[in-house]
Design brief:
The chain has a single domain (14-322), classed as TIM Barrel (Alpha-Beta Barrel). Helices cover 45% and strands 14% of the residues. It has helices at 4-10, 26-35, 44-51, 61-65, 69-74, 78-94, 116-134, 149-162, 191-199, 214-224, 239-247, 256-262, 273-278, 290-293, 297-303, 310-322; strands spanning 13-19, 97-104, 137-145, 173-179, 203-208, 228-231, 251-254, 283-285. The chain has an eight-stranded parallel sheet. The chain starts with a helix and ends in a 13-residue tail after the last helix. Bound molecules: zinc ion (ZN).
């Protein structure tokens, strides 16, 4: 029999939770920073340290989010955003990802003058090209940052709909999400934005239960009507909530390496994905941020070898594909 690493490499994989800004290959960021004369350090190795969590830096979500500042210097320009998106999708395809949902907050890419619409289109152009070149199904989830509040979230939901995949013959926006610090912004604030997104035909997911308890995950389900949840680590502490997730078939987007790095899961603890699977909650194996977390889809999938058989892992990826918000239709031609 082939070694398991080889079988994981060849397994068709599904990526449902990956951020653009945290997944840009460091070499691409270095090249663009040089082009814009913005290099904050002397060489690519020093830059890599600024972009990827280092051993002493683990433990808080804030330290993790701090890694996102540098990529933003170069992702304020249309061509750059398009190019970095293509590079991320190319790497994913190389790792055997067949279905790729990237996510991104357009607002924080408008500081050099791009409109929200352009900020969204630039990613979609990159995804269209990658889809054609690398034979990978792609879609974009638009993120509203929680700290920008519910009104901006509503504006974003409308912008996202105008670029929805079902309205165009190309890769498009497939979903809507909220992300950012959880403690000060309860999910119920975003109820209307989620209604707008769902009525517009987008899939709805939300980051939840990463740094707060299961009561917030309840609110995310009841008030926002999500069909998927990012992380939901704290849900395992509430058996009734676990039954609800299983009963309603709400998929949890699990990001193992990231959860340990942010402290959402204690280093020595078993990852909640095991409980989710045992209790019949659907899951996806996701990278969150390949550059910040120093990981990729094959590494994340391999982490599950300590809990599940290869056959079960393949089944998880196949099931996650069914939960993808990307419409199943022939891939678009490049534009
Ligand atoms: Zn995330």
């Amino acid at each position: 029999m082939k070694p398991s690493s080889d079988r994981i490499r060849k397994m068709p994989k599904t990526e449902l939770h990956q951020h653009v800004d945290g997944s840009i290959p460091p070499s691409t960021i270095w090249r663009m920073m040089r082009r814009h004369r913005l290099t904050p350090v002397r060489d690519p190795r020093a830059l890599q340290k600024l972009l990827t969590i280092q051993p002493g830096e683990e433990g808080t979500l804030l330290a993790y989010l701090d890694k996102f500042h540098y990529p933003l210097w170069i992702t304020q320009f249309y061509e750059n955003i398009q190019e970095v998106t293509e590079a991320i999708a190319r790497d994913a395809a190389k790792n055997g990802v067949k279905t790729l949902e990237l996510r991104y907050s357009p607002v924080i890419h408008t500081y050099a003058g791009l409109t929200l619409r352009q900020a969204i289109r630039s990613v979609l152009t990159g995804l269209n090209r990658a889809s054609k070149r690398h034979g990978i199904d792609c879609g974009l989830i638009v993120i509203a940052m929680r700290q920008h509040g519910p009104h901006i979230a509503k504006i974003l939901a409308r912008q996202a709909i105008s670029e929805a995949q079902h309205l165009h013959d190309r890769a498009g926006v497939v979903g809507f999400d909220i992300a950012g610090p959880e403690r000060t912004t309860p999910p119920r604030l975003f109820r209307e934005a989620y209604e707008v997104a769902a009525k517009g035909g987008l899939g709805v997911t939300a980051h939840s239960g990463e740094e707060v308890g299961p009561e917030v995950v309840w609110q995310t389900i009841d008030d926002l009507g999500v069909s998927r949840i990012g992380h939901a680590c704290s849900a395992v502490r509430d058996p009734v909530l676990m039954r609800r997730l299983a009963r309603d078939g709400i998929l949890v987007e699990c990001c193992l390496t990231s959860n340990y790095q942010t402290g959402a899961v204690a280093r020595e603890a078993k990852h909640p994905i095991v409980d989710f699977v045992e209790k019949g909650v659907p899951v996806a194996i996701c990278t969150d941020n390949t550059t910040v977390s120093g990981t990729d889809q094959n590494k994340e999938t391999a982490l599950l070898r300590s809990y599940f058989s290869l056959k079960d892992i393949a089944r998880i990826h196949a099931q996650a594909r069914e939960y993808s918000y990307i419409l199943k239709r022939p891939r678009p031609s490049a534009r």
